[in-house]
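Query structure, 265 tokens:
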């Protein structure tokens, strides 16, 4: 149960919570209006490494939300680049499986792409090929460090649930026996970044997400209150079978807003 009167900041996932694909989910406008009315700061935190913060700002504008700043969006792409800068010298070569945006962000931070690299980075790649997996596997077997933007095994899409970055990782883990360092949710760096932007303590903050293994498990580990919405990757049956328990569960944003406005848990 959550006493919403104690909440001073909100962290929310995007895919499966605010939208699926390019279609906004019911309750999106009411959710942002409620946050404005209550003057509650918001950070949008996503494991998706395919888009930049600026691209998400643009997507939100198309859906009628025009007051979200880039600094209020934390992605696994930005978190991974920060991790590289903190842990490796500039100029270290990296082999990347991922979107063009992820590759550009890593290169712009001073880490050139190379097929004979010391680090392998895996992000979601919708044009994945066997040759890419082959090259990554060979590097990992030769001792390259293994990093990943996230471990999401599946993603919500307009046509249904599709393979996510975790599915790519599973292939490489099976081929190499290596386990990656995961940078995105449920790891703490994503939540620590969000709390810094919000300026709230974990106890004053609620994490809203559609995934038990990343949003809810990560939020709980960070000390936040957690809300699961069933509009994305998690079905009611999976919730019943899981050992990860959110503080509250709603069908989607519309039901969350109604209960928050009424002050009900």
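Result returned for the query:
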């Amino acid at each position: 149960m959550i006493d919403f009167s104690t909440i001073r900041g909100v962290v929310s996932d995007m895919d499966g919570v605010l939208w699926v694909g390019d279609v906004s989910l019911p309750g999106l406008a009411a959710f942002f209006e409620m946050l404005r009315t209550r003057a509650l700061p918001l950070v949008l935190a996503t494991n998706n490494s395919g888009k930049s913060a600026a691209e998400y700002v643009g997507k939100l504008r198309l859906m009628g939300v025009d007051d979200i700043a880039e600094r209020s969006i934390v992605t696994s792409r930005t978190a991974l680049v920060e991790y590289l800068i903190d842990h490796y010298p500039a100029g270290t070569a990296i082999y990347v499986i991922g979107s063009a945006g992820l590759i550009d962000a890593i290169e712009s931070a001073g880490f050139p792409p190379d097929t004979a690299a010391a680090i392998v980075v895996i992000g979601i790649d919708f044009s994945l090929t066997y040759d890419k997996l082959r090259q990554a596997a060979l590097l990992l077997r030769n001792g390259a460090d293994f990093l990943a933007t996230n471990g999401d095994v599946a993603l919500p899409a307009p046509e249904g649930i599709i393979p996510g970055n975790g599915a790519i990782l599973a292939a490489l883990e099976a081929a190499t026996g290596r386990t990656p360092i995961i940078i995105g949710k449920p790891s703490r760096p994503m939540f620590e970044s969000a709390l810094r932007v919000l300026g709230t303590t974990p106890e004053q903050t609620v994490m809203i997400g559609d995934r038990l293994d990343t949003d809810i498990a990560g939020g709980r580990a960070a000390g936040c209150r957690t809300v699961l919405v069933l509009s994305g990757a998690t079905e009611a049956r999976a919730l019943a079978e899981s050992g990860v328990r959110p503080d509250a569960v709603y069908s989607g944003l519309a039901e969350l807003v109604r209960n928050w406005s009424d002050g009900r848990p």
